[in-house]
Amino acid sequence: MPLALLALAVVAFGIGTTEFATMGLLPQIADGIGVSVPQAGNVVSAYALGVVVGAPLLTGICARVPHKRLLLLLTGLFVIGNTASAVAPGFGTLFAARFLAGLPHGALFGVGAVVASRLVAPDRAARAVSKMFLGLTIANIVGVPAATALGQQLGWRSAYGAVAVIGLVALAALAAFVPNQPRGEQSGVRHELRAMGNKQVVIGLATAVVGFGGFFAVYSYLVPMLTHLTGVSDSSVTWVLALYGVGMTLGTLVAGPLTDRALRPTMYWGLVLLAAALVTFYYAVHSTVPALVMITFIGAMGSLITTPIQMLLMAKAKDAPTMAAASNHSAFNLANAGGAWLGGLVISAGWGWASPNLVGAALALAGLGLAFTGGVMDRGRRPSEVITQASPVTGQETPVRTAD
Predict the structure, then answer these.
(1) Does 127 share its domain with 250?
(2) Which of 75, 177, 269, 276 would bridge with 3, disulfide CB 3.0–4.6 Å?
(3) 242 near 140, Cβ under 8 Å?
(4) Are the beta carbons of 159 and 151 closer than 8 angstroms?
(5) Are residues 147 and 204 in the same domain?
(6) What is the pLDDT of residue 183?
């Protein structure tokens, strides 16, 4: 089902573009709505808040809606949110519009991951999910720089308008290429919430918050690190940041096959290598070539842990994987907020611009500890089952074992 996976990747591309392009357009947004740059930065927080709230809320409310119809509804909400952002007259309305645009983010990724896993043979489910995530990583290479340049040349509103157009393209592609996937007879909000109470789901979400917080502790302050320590000029920062996107894309390509083969070891090694890369970057940041190499590697390791965590949550939630898969993206946004906050603390304490790397390494290792604890608790149990197939006639879902 390559066209269906492509449609899901287009959705992910639009989400990645709208999420990160705002950060590069804050000065233009501040000038356009008559506020300071720090105040304009609150619209970034509004989007993240929408993601955190929307993932469990929308998947819970729509727990009985067939997956294809839910994808179309969520993508439509995404288009409305970005269109509202493009025409918002002032700060208050823009804040509300960004919150609205963020609401479907986590639910789209969660439902999309479940749909993608059911489009292919069971032993290729993680590869299908990682192909959808490629849209997000490619957005960091192409979408975000393009939207930023568009916003700088034609005004920040044009960037959100372009994202809305991407959303319309994705809406048409989803309608044309994604097959119907009926929900099982047991589907419903109570069923989804019961699955969220599984200890392994809770540990998996905690791993995402803490472990991925290490990635964001560094990403949030990468620009000042590059300009103050590495000596990269302001005009070159955008292209250097694209290396992060290249690394994320490479990591996502590798993550799918590895996760299909050995889920937990992929997650363990991803966190170990992320911690090692962040410590190395702490020392290499003063030299241009080693710094650029490590930026690419850090991006790759960050993406390497995304797919196994997503598949682990879907496996442990068993026959109610949608809310768990969506809540993973709420966890990533909490990681974004927490990692940035902790990184800022050590910089404010006078530890230097490179110090967030050490914070990030500590968070990655703490995430490894959580992941390993979950693995030990799960030892001796039968292999996990991911619900990857549903009969188009009966709607009954078929469990398929995955390698932990």
Answers:
(1) no
(2) 177
(3) yes
(4) yes
(5) no
(6) 62
Which runs of consecutive H residues, i.e. helices, occur in 178-236? 189-196, 199-219, 222-225
User: pLDDT digits over 153-210, tens only?
Assistant: 898 999 999 999 999 999 999 999 988 876 655 556 666 667 667 888 889 999 999 9
Residues in the chain: 404
Percent of the chain surpassing pLDDT 70: 89
Sorting pLDDT into bands at 50, 70 and 90, what band is 404?
low
Kindly state whether residues 317 and 305 are assigned to the same domain.
yes
Distance of alpha carbon 204 from alpha carbon 114, whole angstroms: 17
Q: Is there a single domain that holds both residue 197 and residue 308? A: yes
400 DSSP β-pair partners = 386
Q: For residues 120 and 2, give the distance between their C-alpha atoms in angstroms, rounded to a whole number.
A: 10
Tell me: do 75 and 106 sit in the same domain: yes
Strand partners for 387:
399
Q: Say which residue, 142 or 39, is predicted with more confidence.
A: 142
Residues 131 and 255 grouped into a single domain:
no
**Residue 202, C-beta contacts closer than 8 angstroms, at least 6 positions apart:** 196
Using a pLDDT cut of 90, give the percent of the chain over it: 38
Select from 161, 181, 201 the last residue of a domain: 181
What is the Cα–Cα distance from 153 to 163, expressed in whole angstroms? 16
- Here the CATH number for the domain that contains residue 66 is 1.20.1250.20
**pTM of this structure:** 0.79
Residues 148 and 223 reside in one and the same domain: no
Domain boundary among 141, 159, 181: 181
Structurally, the chain folds into a number of domains equal to 2
What's the rounded Cα separation, in Å, for the pair 147 and 23?
Answer: 11
- Secondary element (H or E) of residue 253: helix 237-261
Q: What is the mean pLDDT of residues 271-290?
A: 95
pLDDT of 390 above 70: no
Residue owning tokens 């990724």: 109
